[in-house]
Design a protein that fits this description.
With 304 residues, this protein is α+β, with helices and mostly antiparallel strands. The chain has a domain of 205 residues. Helix content is 57%, strand content 17%. The strands form two sheets. Strands 1, 2, 3, 4, 7 and 8 form a six-stranded antiparallel β-sheet that branches.
Length: 304
């Protein structure tokens, strides 16, 4: 068999496949028309089921939020979240979680957030857990994790946020860990503040006798001062670290801190209607087949 024969054989197989699909569709249409009211009733039931599925009481809502904490507390924070989830219903209510939210709670997932450009700006959430903590290209953020909470039949995520925050702020081992890591963070900030002042003072010091030409010229314009170029690069690095620590200090007044309220989403309504319609069509065809071949089915069941 040469290449031409193989292509011809594939074309014939595809034509046969499409022909069979067309015949199947025609048979389904004829079956639906033959038992029209049964088919329409099943489709209506499917659409009605999709409509009920769109109602809040039958919807799974997912809330997403990022919590920020002092660097170094990753494992402690995860341990604290697990401890919170193991509390009894009454204990959770003591921290501010309402009964309807406790009953609607279905699960919680923790994801790392990834910084791809090493600029302390989060680029995406690692929902597949594909980035290792030791990865040096895609950096796992050291001061935050992403939470996804599932509630069935409720969009009220605020009580969960309040209860989790109150729990972290009331547990001695979590508060102590937060104090310890923030102390280290403050010491680093103090060091960088002093280093900025030190480098800044160096840049104003004349190390050599200034020559007549003090600057680098380009087309008769002085574009930089030679005597003040010595520590610019070092100063920028120190300032970057200092600004990062200051921003982190301002964003973590508590043990854990929600950057924003939970962002809530659910399956789009159109998908629920579409699934309900497909289920209704399939059910209608099955019911039509059952009616058409009911005698054969009854005889088979009697034999059994």
């Amino acid at each position: 068999m040469n290449l031409f024969d193989f292509i011809l054989l594939c074309c014939k197989a595809l034509c046969r496949l499409f022909k069979n699909i067309g015949v199947l569709i025609l048979q389904m249409v004829r079956l639906g028309l033959q038992y029209f009211w049964v088919f329409v009733a099943c489709v209506a039931l499917g659409v009605l089921g999709g409509w009920l599925w769109t109602k809040p009481f039958a919807t799974m809502f997912k809330g997403n939020a990022t919590i920020v904490y002092a660097e170094g507390m990753r494992e402690v924070v995860k341990e604290g979240i697990i401890d919170f989830l193991t509390l009894s219903k009454d204990q959770k209510m003591e921290y501010g979680m309402t009964e309807d939210v406790i009953d609607a709670f279905e699960g919680l997932f923790i994801y790392n957030v990834i910084d791809c450009n090493a600029d302390s700006v989060v680029d995406y959430v690692d929902r597949k857990h594909s980035v290792a903590l030791s990865d040096t290209l895609n950096l796992v953020a050291r001061d935050r994790v992403h939470l996804e909470v599932e509630l069935f039949g409720s969009m009220n995520f605020k009580p969960f946020e309040i209860a989790l925050t109150n729990y972290f702020n009331s547990q001695s081992y979590l508060v102590e860990a937060d104090r310890r890591w923030k102390k280290i963070q403050q010491e680093r900030l103090d060091y960088f503040t002093k280093e900025v002042a030190r480098l800044d003072s160096f840049m104003t010091y004349d190390y050599f006798v200034k020559p007549q030409n003090l600057g680098v010229e380009w087309e008769s314009h002085i574009i930089s001062e030679r005597a003040q170029e010595l520590y610019y690069a070092d100063l920028l690095i120190v300032l970057k670290n200092k600004n990062y620590l200051e921003m982190q200090k301002m964003s973590t007044p508590g043990v854990i801190n929600f950057q924003t309220p939970f962002v809530v989403y659910a399956m789009p309504f159109i998908w629920k209607y579409a699934i309900g319609l497909v289920v209704g069509v399939v059910l209608g065809l099955l019911m039509s087949l059952a009616i058409k071949y009911r005698a054969i089915i009854v005889a088979y069941l009697k034999e059994k």
